[in-house]
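Blinded run. Sample ID left blank on purpose so nobody reads anything into the name before looking at the predicted structure. Input follows.
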Amino acid sequence: MTETYEVIVIGGGAAGLSAALVLGRSRRRTLVVDAGEPRNAPAAHMQGFLTRDGMPPAEFLALGREEIERYGVELVRDRVVEVAEGFAVTLASGRVLRARRLVVATGLKDELPEVPGVAERLGKDVLHCPYCHGWEVRDQAFGVLATSTLSVHQALMVSQWSKDVTLFLHEVAEADLADDDLRRLAAAGVEVVAGEVAELVVTEDRLTAVRLKDGTAHAREVVFTAPRAVPRSGLLERLGAELTETPFGAYPVVDATGQTSVPGVWAAGNAVGFGEQVINAAAGGYRAGAAINGDLLMADLDAAAGV
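Blinded prediction complete.
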């Protein structure tokens, strides 16, 4: 027989666990399905989360799982492969479940530049977010590996944490940079280096330089780069959710609580946007959980009252 839950949360990161916590405390039979692929897994610590600043992401998630368990929320390590009509949820293991409401908190995947050393050093001295890691590497020699003309903005941002910043254009042509951007880069003291990057040089487990394909090497201690964001929006697409295109991928159109255009389906965390940090994702999950509880309550009361 198909198991039925009031709410199934797809994704067990900060957003999914936060939604599940609210729902569990609201006495809703809730299941979290988690594939165990958090976006911030390469990072040793997370920053900027009040009272949790510096906590390892794995420890944060472990505490979250313990908290939802106190309220009877179930968690299964599995992957949702399909959601059919009536919110029949099929897992990779073959288990079939049914839900009255869904929370999609599947996040996104980062695709890194295919430059030797980038993937290997990610979360150490290859970083993407100055708000997440800027303080820890402040005043070091920064490089910014461009992935598009938007990397100009990243180079300008990281100049807040170091006055020694070099923007490596890599496969971006200098002619593609706007005149205003070039003036801003000059005002910020950011050096611009044209030419394709061949590799990051690592010496004794430390990044020491960025080497171009022409053989020249530029001493650097930290490299920031903007990965290509690939939203895990397949389930939302198949459910018929309205999506909107952004420079960072297509994300669902949601209201203030995270409700999508599909009745009964909410989204939270990086499933709704590229820039949702852990603290934002947790807040989004909370809002979704509270909205869903209210939605279920009113639906049941209306049914009982014949409204």
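Unblinding after everyone has recorded impressions. The mean pLDDT is 96.
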